[in-house]
Request: fold
Amino acid sequence: VVPAGRHLDDPVPIWLNPNHGPLLTSLLTSGLVTPVWCTSWRKDATTIIGPLLDLPDFSYLDLPRPQITTSHPNGYLWKRDHVDAWLGTAPVVWVDDDFTALDHIWAADRTAQGCATVLIQPDPYVGLRARDLVCVQNLVARLFENAATSDE
Reply:
């Protein structure tokens, strides 16, 4: 594929599993989540990746384009500060293959403060698996159930 800012003679290889499209669509249209792309692909995720998997259109976090040479310039995933600010106190199940131990500590601290935070980290050499999506579905259902129970 050719993301924005790249030349036709400089495409980016991506590996997608077409079987994930229906699994993701089921989760995204369940009404239990507010899906948001949080990727360095930015809007290209909605216009390139989403259509390849036949996903419904949904928003993206317009991340900056930092001048960094590693995805962990402060020891944690560079996107985290932007995601944290955007989330506020909302619960989150975040799927990314590039978390560090500091990201997992952040998630545990955020959860301890009452903001349920679950990080799902697929193996970057294997990619997202159907079982990862089932895990997300179960976690979201549990979070939704716990929120409904605490409101009673």
Notes: Residues 20-151 form one domain. Strands lie at 92-95, 117-120. The CA atoms of residues 15 and 127 lie 8 Å apart.
